[in-house]
């Protein structure tokens, strides 16, 4: 099968990304090992009650969003920073590849790895932890895809202010901890004071978690208190506010990426 001409170069860049990833043991562990550890932490939570649902499933659906930080955000910040500093981005830009093809291959690789993690975790939730097939898989997919877009644009921006690849994991830590603690991944936000709960809803990962949980359980997880059951159309309506927050972060990330992203080394 012949691929479109604009897609073939992008796939070649993606293949380069995969080759470099497998050669970096730290990156492999970050992308695949840490999610396995987080998934293992769900087993003791089975049978507990968090937010009116099984604790393992509650946290597991939060991890569906949280894995974005490993596979997409941290991975791309490291990749773009390392390639900028060793002048790979500059050399690629001197070829026939377009800017979109150079960066799109890396984003595509990260998205593919995240898709593998997501499918694996959904199997664990359904088979090992007594979960179910998502009530609205399209809504779940839309939320996760929106998260990929948001954290990819944020990765572009953050890579531009990251001095070198060795410091990349330190630079992203505040974002990771902020999302872990403020996006309702591990515990419901309704236990927080009202003003703090509203602030946490604007953490970039919060809308992804809200949309994912609503689509998975078929319950309203934007209303953090009651979680009433919702149908498919009502579920989408419930998540409109969350999608708006995603659009906000996507626009902000794009603006910051345009301003901060660098193609050449910072010391050049």
What does this structure look like?
The chain has one domain (about 10-260). A hairpin with a 2-residue loop joins strand 1 (about 50) and strand 2. A two-stranded antiparallel sheet has the order 1-2. The protein has about 270 residues and is mainly α. Helix content is about 70%, strand content about 0%.
Main attributes?
268 residues; two-stranded antiparallel ribbon
Helicity, as a percent range: 55-70%
Identify low-pLDDT runs.
Answer: 1-5
Order of helices and strands: HHEEHHHHHHHHHH
Tell me what portion of residues adopts beta-strand conformation.
under 5%
Shape: globular
Report how far apart the termini are. 43 Å
Largest sheet: 2 strands, antiparallel
> How do the strands line up in the largest sheet?
1-2
Mean pLDDT: 85
Ordered list of secondary-structure elements with their pairings:
Elements: H1 8-23, H2 25-40, E1 49-50, E2 53-54, H3 55-66, H4 68-85, H5 88-93, H6 99-128, H7 137-160, H8 168-182, H9 194-200, H10 206-217, H11 232-238, H12 240-260
Antiparallel strand pairs: 1-2
In short:
With about 270 residues, this protein is mainly α. It contains 12 helices and 2 strands, in the order H-H-E-E-H-H-H-H-H-H-H-H-H-H. Helix 2 runs parallel beside helix 6, helix 4 (about 70-85) packs antiparallel against helix 6 and helix 10 (about 205-215) runs antiparallel to helix 12 (about 240-260).
